[in-house]
Amino acid sequence: MPPATTTSAAPLRRSVASGDPRRVARTTGAAILLMAPFGMFGNVVTLGLGTEVAGMTDRVLEGALPVALAVIAFGIVVVLDIIAAWGITQFFADRPLARLAGWMRVAYSAVLAVAAAQLATALSLARAGADDASVASGATAFSATWQLGLFVFGGHLILLGALVIRTRTTPTLIGCIVALAGASYAFDSAARLLLPSDSPPSRSRWCS
């Protein structure tokens, strides 16, 4: 009969259902690092250093090339976010919370894709010579959808932070920081969506 310590000394369940966990971690990390400059570029081009829709509308009305590049940048971020979501579900494959966290990130990617499409539509209207009100409406829709996306992203970070905290092989401190960042995203985005548009703006999000 095997000793009683055999079961307790057995290796912990793998964090990855299949494949090399280090490879999954490297792939996910690379996706997150790559999306940072693209997200920063798209954010700065469209929103500048604030979140004033009027300034963004002016940039769209100019029909500048940077706005079109920002749409492409957001599209790249969407793809990289989906890769990151896959990595999360794979790395924490034995955790039920992993699927929910992964799907939350996919949901954020879908909202970001809608926002990018709204921005592209506004840019097309501007280049076609549409009236300023139509372009401004598209810019406003982009801004509102963007904030909704950040709210969903905040929820994703809260779940991811909780997942990291509850996993013995990942640092608890990192999980706390991620969860706190998620709560900040969610609170700030909810405030922007609920408060009057003339409320004093704070700094915009530089990346996702």
TrEMBL record:
A matching Pfam family = DUF4386
Q: Which residues cross the membrane?
A: 30-51, 63-86, 106-126, 146-165, 172-195
Instruction: Tell me yes or no: is Transmembrane helix among this UniProt entry's keywords.
Output: yes
Key words, A-Z: Membrane, Transmembrane, Transmembrane helix
Return the annotated region ranges for Disordered.
Answer: 1-21
What is the name listed in the Swiss-Prot or TrEMBL entry for this protein?
Answer: DUF4386 domain-containing protein
Q: Mind giving the lineage of the organism this protein is from?
A: Bacteria, Bacillati, Actinomycetota, Actinomycetes, Micrococcales
